[in-house]
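User: Structure tokens for both sequences below?

Assistant:
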Amino acid sequence: MQWDVRTLSDPVMIESALPGCEFLVRVDEGDVDFDALREEHAGRDVEPTSDPETIAERAFEEGERYAAVMQVSVGPVNPTFETVVTIDHREQPAMEASGEGSTGDSSFEMHSWMDLTATDDGIGVDWETEADVFGRIASMGQRVINPAANQVVKRFFSSVQSEIREREIAEGGTVEAAESAEETSDDRGIVDRILGRSEGS
């Protein structure tokens, strides 16, 4: 169970599981030079781990800022957003964050929270995101934006679950055990309950 909780506090795991994410790194206060970050982190290969000391050293921290570059599919377009997120509150198992991102002709501002709840099969995740979207993407309307956002969330948690199974095998488990767990979990595993919503304007 603690492995599941730590997973969602690890920027490396989040980066690996988040669809279209080029990098997710801690940054200092002030303007963020995304071109320099792209050059610095191009081709890097940082493996997720279950080592508690390693995760504790790099886990999300309250008050810290993180920069990310992420491509998303929204209707007929695939914009790449340069995003800065601030961890407003972090007290396991809850976390709140706010941020803003931009691409050539669109931008957004968001606030989100996530709360983890222990269950018999793994972890339940309650989440909510409120976002204001501007520019070309905003003109597409919520019928396009909300399904796209929910699809990203679904793919993210599916990737997290897959990453955990790979780590379990690497740390002494067996492929057969992982496959058996997958077959009996009914796509539950780490996240047997995801309650959430995304709102935008």
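Moving on to the next sequence.
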Amino acid sequence: PFSAETCLASCSRTPVAPVRRMWQSGVEMTWGRAVAVSCLIGVIASSAYFAYHEPGALETSMEAEYGWTPAQLGLLFTAYSIPPFWMTVIAGALMSKCGLKMVGATLLALIASGTLIGALASSSSALSGTGKLYVWMVGRFLVGAGGEALVTWQQAACTIWFHGEHLGKAMATALSVQQVVGSALSFVVLPAFPELTHAVWAAVAFCTGCLACLGLYVLVERAHQPYLDARAAAGSHGDDIYEKLDDEDTPRTGTWAMVRAMPALFWAQNVLIFLDVTVLYSSANFFPDWLQEVYGMSVHDAGMCTSLIYWMVALAPLAGALTDRYGYRLVVQTVASLAIGVVFLMLYLVPPNLLSPVIALVLIGVLFSCIEYNAYCLLEVTWSSVPGDPEGIGFGIMGIALNLGLVSLPELTGVLATATGTTRHQNLLFALWMFAGAGVSLLERCLPGGQRLNNVAGVPERVEHVVKSPVGTPCILNVQWLEGLVANGEKFEL
């Protein structure tokens, strides 16, 4: 059997110093601090969600006051979704060069500027309804330039602060906070204003407040700088730590080589995100008008009812904790996609007096809390065997897939409502997209490596263990290396 000395001698480089610096940094990342940092990151990122849903929350008022059609309202979401095709990649590159604080301030400023342009257009009496639409599209373009890139910023911030299974929990916490503070509150607060002009200026104030929260993040980062320095020295992801400490000895993998090495599972999961996650963000923007037409709700009540979807997404950390512990991510993803499609189909077929929209939207929100977290975690697992550092290019491709959906589905929904003269048929469209997502999720199990996705609990391929040699010297051992010994039938002890 292998002894501890043999295991340690097999390692080409033993990174003792970074671990010691981590232990001697003087700052401990306790559970309470981790939750607080994750929530702060989520509040900052909520600016993108609040601004994105602004036209959806004010859909009825905009159509009544400006004379816009559902198809024209869909153009606002199309304008939002164009810049992310390149901005997510640009922002990712700038984060590596300029840091999170500078890039975050720039993205938040773009969002605030975009909402400001829309508010100025709404306050102008010299512009016609069509003129306001064109100016709003310019503002939405700026919001889109900062919005989706800010989501990438949130993922990068969580990666810098946390790793391993803690990274998944941090992302789930930040996700739930940004959905509740950004998405849910937009449908509750904005329709409550009696004047449309007041509502759009409230959106400007909210986005400006999120920019101020970035200043609080800067102070928190400075207070935890020893911890962050030690995290950076020890390696951001914890896997292949020996190679990361000596980059000049490690051949770099090109971007296109990593793209070509992405397995079929990665592309299938991106198709699922294009289908399922798109429905989460797009459907809510068209629910208020539908609730008013089918159920006769007021503007305020329709906004409150729609917000239930995002209040339920607050359950994402609980769903993440359960799948982290027990696995079955692919099963949960498939069943939830199919169940949401059934709910949308029932909303389309069942008479309104036989199905409560409150129960239906709560159920959709609970199921979506299971889908979104698992979808991102499964996506990260699909590139675990790709050489190099595929995280950046992987999340960049994911952003492109998601925004393709955010461009197409809102426009299709608006065109359908304009052509038929009713919003009743939109739920059938949403149901078809969810059924397609369930089919893709079923297909993933048949692809090479698909069966192991159900065994994913946390991030087992990317975790390190801190152990001690017989003389008490701390060392990091890669779990994948040890698992290779087990797979070969070799025995060892530590």
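User: Anything stand out in the second?

Assistant: The longest helix spans residues 129-161.
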